[in-house]
Amino acid sequence: MKKYSIVVAGGGSTFTPGIALMLLEEQDRFPIRKIKFYDNDGKRQETIAKACEIYIKENAPEIEFSYTTDPEEAFTDVDFCMAHIRVGKYAMREKDEKIPLKYGVVGQETCGPGGIAYGMRSIGGIIELIDYMEKYSPNAWMLNYSNPAAIVAEATRRLRPDSKILNICDMPVDLEEKMADMVGLKSRKQLDTQYYGLNHFGWWHKIYDNEGNDLMPIIRKKMAENGFAGAISQTDQHVENSWMDTFAKAKDVYALDPETIPNTYLKYYLFPDYVVEHANPEHTRANEVMEHREKHIFEVCNNIIEAGTAKGSPFEPDAHATYIVDLACAIAKNTKEKMLLIVPNEGTIENFDRTAMVEVPCIVGSNGYERIVQGAIPQFQKGLMEQQVSVEKLTVAAWIEGSYQKLWQAITLSKTVPSARVAKLILDDLIEANKEYWPELK
Ligand code: NAD
Ligand code: G6P
Ligand code: MN
């Protein structure tokens, strides 16, 4: 069986150890000969990489492992680049969340002005990775889950339309696990679903089991009672209280359109007042992540390095990340698996902009993806999506053209922002905070 060479871009990410260990676990279906980590922060990456190196030596010595900040070394001889970079790291996520909150506006990693700010930082970073990959391994595929995926995907559509990059998100994976649990099935793989939307902005409109039985009636009932709260995901990754609140709030989001099952992220657009009232402008999700996930991962890595062994360490494969191997296998082995990808619409949603980057089910194989037609969508969803896709397109246009005007329009158009005046106040603060990362705006 062919063995693959992988570069993980964003080697210093808090998700890297979980993904690396998951890759080792999945070798039966996705055999690996080489794993490389690449990051532009050598020091951050080193801690994660040294610990993973010890683990890999002890558990899969046949896999060649290395880490580097040199693009040529990282991207030469690779089949896949798994990209999860965070340009500006948590320090900038914290600003993305806190600046809008100062003006009473939702402060969120990927939604509203915070997501726009993050997008303006990510575009350059992702384009750089694509260019390295194409220079040193022209046949490789990039599997990208760096955020904000909607804006990143629109940027790659405009700037690198022919590149082999697939953008994917794990939120629907987690929610499908929860829906499987609601109907007494073991795994999301036992569901057959239809979904349409933008990334972090979509709805399920058909859910069957593998025998073709309609599961919507049971799921609707459960959503009306509890939202996603109480439903168990086999791949539990979102366990903290702030996430529990999001799963419970999905009950109210669902109530707006009981015909469909919403993505949890819609709460930021449909209940921004609630979100702001329940936020602490001094302590946001970025602080939680730094105090919990980041601290924990780096502590575990440092302990492994000090002990010189990973035996007995709480290092665990990230079960939730197997969707990335599903995607890699689909390409490597032409499995034709159905999965949600963020792709150009091209008529998949009949009554929606053909050039929009939409999240829809696709059949994935070695020649890429084929979209599954979703037909015409209802007025409510269409209206929301038209507004949001314009935010995303204007953000990318602002980045490409260096346009202050377009970025002001993008922020003004976000459903989370009450007026052009507030949009301008937020924008001016964001420009100041992002000097190091954004192109100059005129
Ligand atoms: P993190 O800050 O821990 O790690 C990101 C790493 O990227 C850092 O080590 C940083 O130095 C590196 N980096 C930043 N800019 C870079 C560049 N230009 N080139 C190379 N490396 C660069 O972040 P995290 O919380 O572990 O998240 C990583 C990414 O994964 C984020 O974009 C996050 O939003 C995304 N994510 C996406 C999904 C999804 O469903 N799509 C799920 C989880 C996380
Ligand atoms: C979900 C989303 C990701 C996002 C993550 C944030 O998994 O799909 O796109 O990055 O949540 O989680 P965090 O724990 O960092 O707040
Ligand atoms: Mn996501």
From TrEMBL:
Recorded hits in PROSITE patterns, A to Z, give: GLYCOSYL_HYDROL_F4
* Chain positions recorded as Mn(2+) binding sites: 169, 200
The cofactor(s) it depends on are: NAD(+)
Record domain Glycosyl hydrolase family 4 C-terminal: where: 195-417
Q: Which residues cross the membrane?
A: 6-24
Q: Which GO BP annotation is one of this protein's?
A: carbohydrate metabolic process
Q: Where is this site: Increases basicity of active site Tyr?
A: 109
Known CDD domains for this protein?
GH4_GlvA_pagL_like (cd05298)
UniProt entry keywords in alphabetical sequence: Cobalt, Glycosidase, Hydrolase, Iron, Manganese, Membrane, Metal-binding, NAD, Nickel, Transmembrane, Transmembrane helix
Q: Where is the active site?
A: 170 (proton donor), 265 (proton acceptor)
GO molecular function, a single term: metal ion binding
Give the co-factor note.
Binds 1 NAD(+) per subunit.
- Binding of substrate, residues: 93, 147, 285
- Give the family per the record: Belongs to the glycosyl hydrolase 4 family.
Please give the name of this protein. Maltose-6'-phosphate glucosidase
Species of origin: Breznakia blatticola
